[in-house]
Design a protein that fits this description.
Layout: H1 2-13, H2 19-42
Length: 64
Amino acid sequence: MQFLLETAAPVAASPHFPLAFTLVYVVGFIAAVTIGSIAWYNSKRPPGWENKERPDFVPKVDKD
């Protein structure tokens, strides 16, 4: 019984959720939203958006 208590103690002292793991998901989400937004704005316009101006922060991507 004493052995089980000694081995379980270091696990309880460790952090519950690693910060690096969270940062990878947050940065990945931001990158996915940014890249997806650029791709959407450079694709064919959906109905009703044909004559709308492109936002200044979206780069123009040529098909060539």
